[in-house]
Design a protein that fits this description.
The protein is of the alpha/beta class and about 325 residues long. It folds into two domains: about 190 residues, Periplasmic binding protein-like II (D-Maltodextrin-Binding Protein, domain 2); about 100 residues, 3-Layer(aba) Sandwich (D-Maltodextrin-Binding Protein, domain 2), CATH 3.40.190. About 45% of the residues lie in helices and about 20% in strands. Strands 8-7-9-6-10 form a five-stranded mixed beta sheet, sandwiched between helices. Strands 4-11-5-12 form a four-stranded antiparallel beta sheet, sandwiched between helices. A three-stranded mixed beta sheet has the order 1-3-2, sandwiched between helices. Helix 4 runs parallel beside helix 5, helix 5 packs across helix 13 and helix 10 packs across helix 15. The protein is globular.
């Protein structure tokens, strides 16, 4: 889905008028230098909803930033779009970012949220399963190639003594998994909010484990290196809007919940506002650069290297551009 948002704020108009006065003596009127339009990718699961709120809140317009939006089921698809240079910015967790940096030189401009509590391994309730090790021989729906998919296969399943082949991995988008569970075409699923909350509320599935005990799952906002190099002012203005998004999540959660809830109801999902509020509360929006991020990413990169999913361990000082967020918060 692609939507172009335009429009000039009063601030932009006044800035343009002032610039026109300054250059009138040079033979013409020029508008103020505009910020670059951002092609924004995001996933339609709960991980992408803070970005969805950013786009729908009007906060980008406040800082003179225009955007086009590209919605996909999961962040690894946004990463692939960015590697192909079809999208400028997008959100995904650590493993997908490491792969994107390896394949396309993608740059992280901020860590924007923790989502470890939103990801779960769930089994069909009628099977009576309570532990991950009981998935041996079962059909497990998994968004193959996603961060949750990689963490499940490489850490959670292996930690329970299950290697590939011990269970049947069914490749599936996270937004299709609840229907597959209800139809009993799969026995378990590795998915994220709000889909696990829907499955739980409807009595379809029960939780075997959530990801938080294994991984807090920091989610990055990444950008292509070309966009970062050519449009640093746009990146700073964009991150100023993210700082405002954090304030809204903490100070005006009702407004945030109503905006995001309307997205899912418009797509035909049926869930109570109470169920949705519980799912949204599992997302912790907090744009910053935590001190433990490099060791965390080093750990994931070593796993990906061992699994031949990346060619080399990234240089984190080059992969992380911490300066933009500092300027935005100054």
């Amino acid at each position: 889905m692609k939507v172009l948002h335009t429009g000039m704020t009063r601030r932009q108009y006044l800035a343009g008028a002032s610039a026109g006065v300054l250059v009138a003596g040079l033979g013409g009127v020029r508008p103020a230098l505009a910020l670059e339009t951002i092609r924004q990718g995001y996933q339609t699961n709960m991980w992408g909803m803070p970005t969805y709120y950013l786009l729908k809140s009007g906060l980008l317009a406040k800082y003179g930033v225009k955007f086009e939006e590209f919605a996909v089921p999961s962040g690894n698809l946004t990463m692939q779009q960015m590697v192909a240079r079809q999208v400028d910015m997008g959100t995904y967790a650590g493993p997908s970012f490491a792969i994107g940096h390896d394949k396309g030189g993608l740059i992280a401009i901020a860590m924007i949220e923790y989502v470890g509590k939103t990801a779960r391994v769930m089994a069909r309730k009628d099977l009576g399963l309570t532990k991950v090790e009981q998935l041996r021989g079962k059909k497990v729906a998994n968004q193959t190639g996603s961060s949750t998919g990689n963490i499940f296969v490489d850490q959670i399943a292996k930690g329970a003594g299950l290697n590939k082949g011990d269970y049947q991995e069914i490749r599936m988008n996270v937004n299709d998994m609840v229907a597959a569970m209800a139809a009993k075409t799969v026995d378990a699923m590795v998915t994220v909010e709000p889909y696990n909350a829907i499955a739980e509320a409807d009595g379809i599935a029960n939780t075997l484990v959530d990801f938080y005990s294994f991984d807090k799952l920091p989610v990055f906002m990444a950008a292509t290196p070309e966009f970062v190099d050519k449009h640093p002012d746009t990146v700073v203005a964009y991150l100023k809007a993210w700082i405002d998004v954090e304030k809204d999540f903490k100070q005006n959660p009702k407004k945030v919940a109503e905006t995001i809830y309307s997205f899912y109801t418009s797509k035909g999902y049926t869930m109570s506002q109470d169920t949705f509020a519980k799912a949204l509360a599992r997302v912790e929006v907090n744009p910053h650069w935590p001190a433990d991020l490099k060791p965390y990413m080093q750990h994931h990169a070593e796993i990906l290297l061992k699994e031949n999913k990346i060619k080399a361990i990234p240089n984190w000082d080059k992969a992380f551009r911490t300066d933009f967020l500092k300027k935005a918060g100054a």
